[in-house]
Amino acid sequence: MTVQVHITNGPISPAQAGAEEAPSPTTGTAAVGAVLTFRGVVRRLEDDRLLTSIIYETYDPMAQLELERLSGQAVEKFGLLGLRLVHSRGAVPVGEASLFIAIRSTHRREGLDAMDWLIDQLKRDVPIWKHPQYADASHSPCEPGAADA
Amino acid sequence: MNNTPTTFTVMVLLFGSAAAGARESAVAVFLEPGATGADLLRAIGEQHPALTNETAVGRIAADHAFMDPAAPIDPEQELALISMVSGG
Q: How far apart are the C-alpha atoms of B48 and A104, rounded to whole Å?
């Protein structure tokens, strides 16, 4: 069982998201029956206003510690076999990914439940704040409680 | 001669809407000896009115972990006001 958590500068690249392919029986993870991935991207519209990007402000290292804590809790609570999470800091343009989560579980049910739980907890506890940058050149200081991805 | 300190000062880091509202990245807060996390939250709002709304929904973090509101403040720890977050 592995838990990997990383905060990266800027958008999450496909390479950082990595390949979450189903393991072969020879890798020692034959119990994995479900591999779930979530990729949260910056929407073009926020409150009917066009965005160019979102700037993610993070309180490091508490953000890292909280993401690790919640990820560990998710593994224990839902009996997961593996979890990997990447979150952005800094500017992420529209259409690019700012959150990536990969979960491995025996059955789909616990994986789906864990994904939903983890994102809800992340949005409540992790010290990260969004600063939307609008196309009309204005910006909000931050947007707490932004709509779910 | 009574040398018991009457107050002490802590610095509290600010982020997000709290930093925007206060136009500061940190504020100084005066506390009574024995003050708790809850006392600090209240004192922030009282001594920095621009942060009153933030303290209503915020939590105190000490050394990068959310603090028990009933626990005493350790001025040696890094303190932060974690206002409503918006990651994910």
A: 47
Give chain B positions within 8 Å (CB) of A129: 15-17, 85-87
* Binding-face residues of B in 11-50 toward A, CB within 8 A: 13, 15-17, 20-21
Phi, psi of A80 (to 5 degrees): -75, 160
User: pLDDT 10s per residue in chain A (149 long)?
Assistant: 689 999 999 999 988 887 555 444 444 477 999 999 999 999 999 888 999 999 999 999 999 999 999 999 999 999 999 999 999 999 999 999 999 999 999 999 999 999 999 999 999 999 999 999 999 876 665 544 443 44
Cβ-proximal residues to B68 (8 Å cutoff; 6+ apart), any chain: B37
| Cβ-based neighbour number of residue B27 at 10 Å | 19
